[in-house]
Write a structure and sequence with these properties.
Layout: E1 3-7, H1 12-23, E2 28-32, H2 43-48, E3 56-59, E4 62-65, H3 67-77, H4 88-118, H5 125-148, H6 159-175, H7 190-193, H8 195-205, H9 210-213
Helix pairs in contact: 1-3, 1-6, 4-5, 4-6, 5-8
The structure holds glutathione.
Glutathione binds at residues 8, 11, 13, 40, 52-55, 66-67.
Length: 220
Amino acid sequence: MAIEFYWGSGSPFAWRVMLTLEVKGLAYESKLLEFSKAEHKTPAYLRLNPRGKVPTLKDGDFVLYESLGIMSYLDRKYPDPPLFGKTAEETGLIWRTLAECESYMAPAGNKVVRPIFFGKGLDQVEEIQEAAQTLRQEFKMIDDRLARSNWLVGDKISAADIGVFPLVQLVLRAAGKEAAQPFHLGFLPLAQTFTNVARWVERIEALPNYQRTYPPHWRQ
Ligand SMILES: N[C@@H](CCC(=O)N[C@@H](CS)C(=O)NCC(=O)O)C(=O)O
């Protein structure tokens, strides 16, 4: 039975799971939910994921939500290529990177990106500037790591890269919007602000099925 993957366009948490599926070359049935139609809040979907969020994965009878849980499940179940490290040290560093992303980048990103995308809370200038400062520090940390290596951990793409990348893309997309301009967020042009991150983004964009994972509504 094919894997069913429930996702929403532009969700960085769903995007990291889709990238995992593609990097592993797994066949899956795409279940794109429209946020605008509240398809993630229907009784049928809430039975799969009582939080009413994306992503959710169904593999046979097994249903799982929470992107990092799904990524580690997929890696254990379908180990080729391994994405959570070949050594204990790599595994520890990958989880550290993911934990840093959830603890620092994701909350700060939310505070910057949401007002810019949805227009609500743009008057909270101090809060946005403070979150943007945290984000710049996080970008700097990954930029420093990427100055020494093509990938965040080890010598191959791992769950660390796949987990962080969609959040970086979301911040960059927000930074390019007109509503972001008064804040002088300092991320663009990326090749000048965070050179190593820019090269890493290109590396991920060059992955074989990357285009299939690109949020459809970002193309419009
Ligand atoms: N920690 C969750 C976060 C999932 C999440 O926040 N998804 C958002 C989209 S980015 C969502 O579905 N929001 C809809 C809602 O909360 O109603 C994960 O990693 O899967």
